């Protein structure tokens, strides 16, 4: 399995609304079109209204690469910058787990 965590910090409350709407448009397409995307979880951060955390888990690196090539993901990647103050990405090396199996 292949995973990552992304922390988005949004510019302001208006940007947060726009970003959340963009996520709301994108996530159903990920569910429908990406069998190799095992988990795509979007979180608000308690007490930090301008932060969002994404946890993404893919069957393998090829599934992640396929995700990045989807038209709906490319649209999200192109549009998200208008809402963001910063982005941090950490790629994960899964050591052990309980739950989703690949």
> Which structural class matches the secondary elements?
alpha+beta
Mean pLDDT: 95
Euclidean distance between termini CA atoms: 6 Å
Helix content: 25-40%
Query: How many separate domains make up the residues?
Result: 1
Q: Helix and strand succession?
A: EHEEHHE
Q: What is the CATH topology assignment?
A: Alpha-Beta Plaits
Radius of gyration: 14 Å
Task: Indicate the low-confidence ranges by residue numbers.
Answer: none
Question: Which CATH C-level class is it?
Answer: Alpha Beta
Question: What's the total count of β strands?
Answer: 4
Any idea what the shape is? globular
CATH architecture: 2-Layer Sandwich
Main sheet: strand order: 2-3-1-4
How is this structure best described in words?
The termini are close together. This protein has three helices and four strands, in the order E-H-E-E-H-H-E. It is an alpha+beta fold and 102 residues long. The chain has helices spanning 13-33, 61-68, 71-79; strands at 2-10, 37-45, 48-58, 84-92. The mean pLDDT is 95. Strand 2 (37-45) and strand 3 form a beta hairpin. The longest helix has 21 residues, at 13-33. 11% of the residues are buried. It has one domain: Alpha-Beta Plaits. The chain is globular, with a radius of gyration of 14 Å. A four-stranded antiparallel β-sheet has the order 2-3-1-4. Helix 1 runs antiparallel to helix 3 (71-79).
Any chance you could write out the topology, listing elements then pairs?
Elements: E1 2-10, H1 13-33, E2 37-45, E3 48-58, H2 61-68, H3 71-79, E4 84-92
Antiparallel strand pairs: 1-3, 1-4, 2-3
Helix pairs in contact: 1-3
GO molecular function: monooxygenase activity
Protein name: Quinol monooxygenase YgiN
Domain ABM: 2-92
């Amino acid at each position: 399995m292949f995973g990552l965590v992304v922390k988005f910090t949004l510019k302001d409350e208006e940007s947060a609304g726009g970003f959340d709407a963009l996520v709301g448009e994108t996530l159903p397409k990920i569910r429908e079109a990406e069998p190799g995307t095992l988990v795509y979880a979007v979180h608000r951060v308690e007490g930090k209204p301008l932060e969002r955390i994404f946890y993404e888990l893919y069957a393998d690196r090829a599934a992640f690469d396929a995700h990045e090539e989807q038209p709906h993901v490319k649209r999200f990647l192109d549009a998200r910058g208008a809402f963001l103050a910063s982005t941090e990405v950490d790629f994960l090396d899964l050591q052990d787990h309980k739950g989703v199996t690949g």
